[in-house]
Amino acid sequence: MKQSLARPRPLWWRILIGLLVLVLLVLAVAVIGGTVFLRGSQPVLDGSVASQGLQADVKIQRDAEGVPTVSGASREDVAYATGFLHAQERFFQMDLLRRSATGEISELLGPTAIAYDEGRRLHRFAARAEAAVAALPQADRKVLDRYVAGVNAGLDQLSNRPFEYALLGVAPRRWRAEDSLLVIWSMYFELQESQLHREFVRGWLRDQSTTAQQLDFLLPKSSEWDAPLDAPAIAEAAAPLPETAPGWFGRVATKQVAAVAMLSTVGSNNWALAGKRTAHGAAIIGTDMHLGLRLPHIWYRAVLAYPEAGKPVRMAGVTLPGVPSIVAGTNGHVAWGFTNSYGDYLDLVELEWDPKNPERYKVPNGWEAMTYHTEQIVVKGAQPDVLKVADSRFGPVWSVGGKRYAVRWVAHDKGAVNLGLLAMAQAQDVPAAVAAAQRLGIPAQNVVVGDSAGHIGWTIAGPLPGRHVPAGFPYRADAVDAGWQALAAPGQYPSVIDPASGQLWTANSRQLAGAEYSKIGDGGADLGARTRQLRDDLTGLGTTDEARAYLVMLDDRAVFMAPWRDRALRALDDKALAGHPQRAEFKRLLQTGWTGRADVGSVGYRLSKGYLNELYSRLFGALDEQLQKDDSQASFAVATSRWPTVIARLLEQRPQAWLPMGFNDWQAVELAAIDSTITKLTANGAPLSAATWGQRNTAHIGHPFIGAMPWLARWLAAPADQLAGDENMPRVAAPEFGQSERMVMSPSREAQAIFNMPGGQSGHPLSDYFLAGHATWVDGKAAPLLPGPQTHVLTLTAVRQ
């Protein structure tokens, strides 16, 4: 036999191979174990689950995208099932919402969140929530208690805790009735907290202006773009241009401040067409609420069906995980949708402290002692953070810019939060829906409603302060007539019912031209360009149906940006182009790369937007830098969304006294803005012609964990889609902000209703529903609101006690 010449492997080699095999085995076990663990935190889709306290079995049918139809014998049973679904699909999202309202994020994330929590603890919403729950009507409390029971049952039914808690190494905390109200309070921060910073900036500008005329010019009360509901336009003369500028104006910034493009972004469109404007005689309601885009998505879509008073109730729309009601949608008789109202719902009260006693502050009739509360913040992996919160008769005390202010906010008032949305299920017509809306305990919204008989209406939904004249600037604590003592009564709310035009529209701008607007006030109302474009689109529809009306939401025409393109072209005259080939290319692309839309391939739109934003930097960048030394969220754009009209007037009148530092004429200012835009867009060596709007407006939609663990983006983020649209047009789109849903519906015609949203139903990355429907939203396709054929059926079985 021939002997092998191969030598035996040395010992070290065999040990190395053994270790590699062991490592691979460990990795394989870890992957398999991790997958099994993750799958164990997915929801139950089929079969039956025994459930305590149900009056009868509840059926949950899901379609191919995971959209449930929940059918039960009572509102309470359906609330239980809704809570069960929310917990199974979205519990971590719910947990973040309640914790964001109370300032308890540090308990999950550790010391990095302490500053955030301290800012939220100022308002002490955890303590307010207990009182708010106690004040709920008995019927609402019964629904809420069943919802809470369903949430905890859904959480218990998961084989493993949601994956986020495994990554954080903490256990989920059970749900309470107070938590659902805290979820609503979290939306106050989302929708109204910017008013805190707005008031501070406006107070700073008032203090630093040498004349009242400067302030009137810089903070206009309306714009030529406004499209109110009660008049063709707002007939207010523009404030005259003062002879001198404030000392801070046009100074040179020493560093790059936050991009103005997102500082001025507000969002949401809603509108109504009366039956006389529709092909079928019923009203059509459209709503696309603009919010921060993230995963899991803020909304959870559902159909809820149950009998009440012997009649069937069937609601379709979107829910907010943590709350048992449909937020926006239709009940078959009435449809409704919201936009943020941007009324004046927060005041800053500048406090004067007693020089003889630093614990007392001035009030109209003398001095009053400050009250203090101790807030203990639990911090993961560290000692608790103890915060001493000062409280006055006007509200909690906020220290900023060397001053101390009391924060007087509607969110602190009794009645700020309730479950009034449950009443929308019973509304049979527009008057009933308007009356119910005015009693809602949510951040005050524009609500438009329409009914199956063709009537339409608008009002404010949510608490309004009961004061005669909105403040708009900080006031002194000893001012007797400042502020408000109680919320306005619902019967005092402004409203518009069945206008002659047969249409209603709101898009965050000034709603009314007349005296009734003083009941709302300006708390950061939008410029109005989007509102006008929306109004004109609706007018152009004539008589229409849902499919044609839906296209209004996709209108990305650059009506607002076109005049800024024209200004840039005028600045680029022959003298400006001489010896400047880059400017010549900029001008060529403004001419040939302009499509008239904010579409993804438009270079001209991106250059025009860059020019406008760089003008802002030249004029207000140093101011923003100064403001942000005291308040990181402060800026001139926060003080007024109408800043483009201020810049436009300066370019039209070209006052020498208002030239920013270092410039001899206004054309030089414009050319500097153009040059800066060119420099930024070509910094990576790419040609200017490659600077498309889509390249700038690329979606960044992901789970909050991605910020700290970017390697998770592969599983926890949506594709980096290029998005058409921008802020001053109906199709609002930004990388992390935009149309959180698009919904067009006509009550009694739900089968023809249209819907899409950027995220799926599930918050679980292994679920088929995690991004279901995302591509439809990106493409703007009209998908049905109602679920498709059922693919899964789960029964919650009543267990008799």
UniProtKB/TrEMBL annotation:
The active site is at residue 268. InterPro entries: Ntn_hydrolases_N, Pen/GL7ACA/AHL_acylase, Penicillin_amidase_A-knob, Penicillin_amidase_dom1, Penicillin_amidase_N_B-knob, S45. Ca(2+) binds at residues 199, 344, 347. Pfam families: Penicil_amidase. The chain crosses the membrane at residues 12-38. GO terms for biological process: antibiotic biosynthetic process. Binds 1 Ca(2+) ion per dimer. GO terms for molecular function: hydrolase activity, acting on carbon-nitrogen (but not peptide) bonds, in linear amides; metal ion binding. The keyword Transferase does not apply. Keywords: Calcium, Hydrolase, Membrane, Metal-binding, Transmembrane, Transmembrane helix, Zymogen. The keyword Glycoprotein does not apply. Its cofactor is Ca(2+). Belongs to the peptidase S45 family. PANTHER family: ACYL-HOMOSERINE LACTONE ACYLASE QUIP, PEPTIDASE S45 PENICILLIN AMIDASE. This is Penicillin amidase.
